[in-house]
Every structure is written in structure tokens, then in C-alpha cells.
Amino acid sequence: MKNIHMGLTAAAILLAGTCQPAIAKVSVDPGRITQTVKTMASDTFEGRAPGTAGEDRTIGYLIARFQDLGLEPAGPDGSWVQKVPLLHTTLGPAKMVFDGPKGAMPVEQSKQVYVSTVRPDDEAKIADAPVVFVGYGVDAPERGWDDFKGVDLKGKVVVFLVNDPDYYAKPGEPAYGKFGRRTMTYYGRWTYKFEEAARQGAVGALVIHDTPAAGYGWNVVISPGGENYDIVRKPADLTTLALQGWIAGDAAKKLFASAGLDLAKLQVAARSPKFRPVTLKGVTFSADAPVTHETVESHNVLAKIPGKTRPDEVVMYGAHWDAYGKGPPDENGKIYRAGANDDALGIAGIMEIARAMKAAPPPQRTVLFAAWTAEERGLLGSEYYASNPVFPMAKTVANLDIDILQTAGAAKDVILVGKGQDTLEDDMARVAATQGRTVTPEGLPERGLFYRADHFSFAKRGVPVLLLMGIAGASDLKQGGVKAGQAWIDQYTGHCYHQACDQWSADWNLDGAVQDIDLIGTIGEELANSDTWPQWKPGSEFKAIRDKTAAERE
Fold first, then answer.
1. Does the structure show a pLDDT above 60 at 1?
2. DSSP element (H, E) containing 371
3. Which among 84, 1, 59 is positioned nearest to 385, based on CA atoms?
4. Interval 388-395 mean pLDDT
5. Bridge partners of 363?
6. How far apart are CA 502 and CA 349, in angstroms?
7. What's the CA gap between 313 and 525, in Å, rounded?
8. With contact defined as beta carbons under 8 Å apart, do 118 and 239 qualify?
9. What are the tens digits of pLDDT across the range 255-282?
10. Average pLDDT, the chain
């Protein structure tokens, strides 16, 4: 893909690991980007919620666009789509109580606790389950850390601290620098903690809410209103957790005190690799709640440009087509939360990359373009693909994801999400330099944005990844600098993120978005025409997973 404002000349260049000439063809067109966004964010698409008429129209539109670009279907059995069965659950009025040495401590949904379920059961029930504090709940052999120490947690309710063991650690403490410090690792995410609780056989899991460490307030925790989503799983693959969720900080202190424990002291103790699970002696948890559940069929859209010489090796681009659908009217009477930036703009970006690549000579490797469903429901479309891949994960070269681009103009830098994870960040720096740009690490790495977009479904399977996310840090804009970049983030996240006002605007300046599309387009094109395999860096929690399949890439 040449001359897509990518800093590549029109002359032939040598790509890493090959002698294949690259020929200038097509430039990214801001007008085409605008038209794609305006179409997908229009009322016709009704906010693009999975399982709605808006999805049907979106899928038809995306297939037609890929067909017009001359791409080939890449779904199962030669289809343009991969069916994604989703489980949608809603927890009804719940009776929940902790019983302990000092008597009963009833708790109320959304007040002291917030729970939901991803099991397709008519009732979520836990009866007199012992309660165990497991610290940060981390099992990280590569860091010499195991919070579980072989303790049997089957049938119990486990209570976790949020974030990583070194989030609050001070110099001299055993955990200090063991993880990412203020850069969250996957072990700090609540999703990991629920997965680990299920691996340990627990029946319930509660994360103690702490606003700084979580990165958001209690209002965000309770906002789903008892709803949850998951992909439909085989019975053998269902989580063991009848309920999973959060306990408010003050409620947790009271609960621990009822068992004669000082939560503050235990938080310090949990910052040591010598920590062992602590049973809240005499404390049990019981819960009973009706559950309504349904299966919603949604779809990923998959298109490809087949590789000429190594079609089994796949470079993947991704963005999510879904948004939040219909909601209550905002102050302007708008009811559709249409996600113009999040992530119609990302879809527009991969469409432009596909158009440019198709106009160039055929790549050596296959290039896959994926429009994911249900990202806003928990990365579920990409998770389903990663669990049921059309192309093997071992032969997937990289996943390159676009999820929100800044619309405030050209920037002197590009924002890196997940510093220190893999060698794609080195490619980012090299290509950015050809654009006259530098790389700036994300602004709030403790919020774990690296684990909160569709690329992460592939990282978990060992595929090297690169994410472009415009809200990850303030861009150093050519007009206004970092201050203007932060002002854009504040305006967007404070007013329009996941809201009805996330609409296309004539005020958008797409120069910075085009820079970023050019950059990630160049990286993917180079990989598609080389024999290079990006690598996880030492210390990444995903390196060992990739290493297990190294023989398949020899």
C-alpha cells in the first residue's frame, strides 16, 4: 500500500525480509472516510446495536462495501460473515446476605455490591458459600507470583483487590516494579480476575472497588443495570461463577471487620509474593436472583485479499461495527447512540486501507479485514472469532486494530497503547519517523486500555497486536500542542463517548486520523510482503503463549 500519505515514496522500496518492490497506488481519501462515517452513523442504522434491524442494515452495507472494493469473502464456508451467538442475561431482584460471627449483613444490588451473571440459568443461586480473600488474585509464573498457593477455592466466593500488586507498592516493598507499576498488566483487569476465579472453581467473585485503582467510579460499575453479555459457550466451557461483580470499598471494610480482619493491613500484605489466601472465618455468602436470558445471533464481517505466495499466513486488520443502539432522548432529542467515532471512523479507516491494498500488487501473505460485532458488550465478536478462528492463531502474523481516532487535526506524534509489549511498537516508531512524528506512550496506562479493545482477544492467544486509540493520550497537535489534544479528549470523553452526540460533525479535522491510518496501513503492508514475525518482548504476559506455537512458524 503506497503513497497513502504513508511516508513511502512512489519509487520501489525494499520491504523487511523480502525483495518485493512496492509500487505507489492509492491515497487515503478523507472524503471517503467522511462518507463512510456519515452513512454508518445515520438514523437509518439505528445506532448499530447487535441483534437489531440496525445490525441487519449494517451487515448488508459492510458486505456491499467490501464487494465493491474487490475483496473476497473470508468467513466460514466462503461466507462474508461469521455467525456470533451471544448470550444476553438480566439479573432480577436479588436477595443477598453475608452471614458471620456478628450476625447477618444484608447487601443490596447497586448499593453495597453489584453483580451479574454470564451463565444461561433461570436462577443465580449461591448457598452459604465460604468467603476467601485472595489478594490481587494473580497467578503469574513469569513474575514469580502466585496468590493462590494451591488453596482449594471450589464452591467458595473469592474477594479480590483491583489492579496489580504493585499499583500502590512503594520502593522497598516486594511488589514494587514486579508488574507494570502504573501501567496495568492483564493481571490487574477485573476480567482476568473473574477468569481466574472460574479456573479455581469458585462459585462467586467480588472485586473490591477503589476508584483510583479501577480508573472509574461506582457509577460506572453499576451502569449496566444487572445486564451482561457473553458468547454462547458449550456446557463444559461455562464459567463456574454463578455471580460475578464488585463490592463497594466501605462495604468490604465492614465485611472484613465482621471477621476480625483489617482490610487495610491485608492490602499491604497482598503486595508480597508470600501472601496466602485468607479465609473470612465464620463468614458465608448467600444469594438468590431470577435470571432472564436469551440468545441473540449477531455477525462478524470478514473479507480478505489472498496472499500470493504464503496465503496461510495472515495479517489482520480490525475495527468494530457495533454501537449502543437506541436510548433515551438527549438534550437535542437524539435517541440513537450511533458511535460515529467509536467506531464508524475505525471501520472507515480499514476500508481505506483495504482499498489501497487492493489497488496494489497482490501481497505475499493474506490480509484479513474484520468488522467485529459486540465490542461494546465486552469484545465478544473478536472473542468469538479468536475462539473459533477461520485462520489459525499460530499463523496470524499480527492483529492491527483501530478503535477511535482523534478528529482535532494533524499531530506531531502518535499515541502508543501498551508500551513494552511487542516489537510492533518498534515498527510504529520507525514508520512514524518517516512521517516526521514521534511516539508518545499512553497518558493513563493504569486504566489498562491495552486490555479493553478487540485486539486483546488476539493478544490472549499469543498474536502480537497494535492498537490505535485516540483517547489513550493527548496528541501533540500541530495547532495547539498537547493542551489542545487534551482538550479534545476532555470534550469527547466528557460529553459524547457512548452518547447520542457521538455524531459526525463538520468541525472534524481528519488530518490526524489520516496520519494514523497511513501509519498502521504501512505497518500491515510491510508485514504482508515480508517473512517477518513480530515478537512479544521479554516480560510480556503473552510471550509464553506465542512461544508454544513457534514450531508452526518455522
1. no
2. strand 365-372
3. 84
4. 98
5. none
6. 17
7. 13
8. yes
9. 999 999 999 999 999 999 999 999 999 9
10. 93
Q: What share of the chain is helix, strand, coil (3-state, %, to 5)?
A: 30, 25, 40
- Is residue 401 within 8 A of residue 454, CB to CB? The reply is yes
Which of 387, 383, 391, 403 shows the shortest CA–CA distance to 365?
A: 391
Look up cell 455467525; give the residue. 83
Element (H, E) at 124: strand 123-133
Measure the CA–CA gap between 120 and 232, rounded to whole angstroms. Answer: 9
Beta strands 227-231 and 438-441 are unpaired
Decide: helix, strand or coil at residue 316. Answer: strand
Say if residues 158 and 252 touch (Cβ distance below 8 Å). Answer: no
User: What is the average per-residue pLDDT within 150-178?
Assistant: 96
As a whole number of angstroms, the distance between CA 342 and CA 513 comes to 13
Write down the pLDDT at residue 412.
98
Tell me the residue ranges of DSSP E strands in 359-503. Answer: 365-372, 396-402, 413-416, 438-441, 465-468
Predicted local confidence at residue 26, as pLDDT: 60
**Residue 368, H or E segment:** strand 365-372
112 contacts 251 by C-beta, under 8 angstroms: yes
With a CB cutoff of 8 Å and minimum separation 6, the contacts of 179 are 140, 143, 164, 165, 166, 167, 185, 187, 188
What value does the CA radius of gyration of the chain take, rounded to a whole number of Å? 24
- CA 131, 132, 136, 142 dihedral sign is negative
> What are the residue ranges of helices labelled H in 87-189?
none
The residue type of 209 is H
Provide the 10 A C-beta neighbour count for residue 171: 6
* Residue 186 near residue 462, CB atoms below 8 Å: no
Whole-model pTM over 0.70: yes
Is the backbone of residue 497 left (phi > 0), alpha (psi -120 to 50) or beta? beta
Distance, CA of 388 to chain centre: 18
Cell of 271: 503486595
* Cell 456446557 -> residue: 235
3-state secondary structure 206-232: EEECCHHHHCCCHHHHHCCCCEEEEEC
Contacts of 541 (CB under 8 A, 6+ apart): 140, 142, 185, 186, 187
Angle at 485 between CA 481 and CA 486, to 5 degrees: 120
Please state the separation of Cα 156 from the chain's center in Å.
29
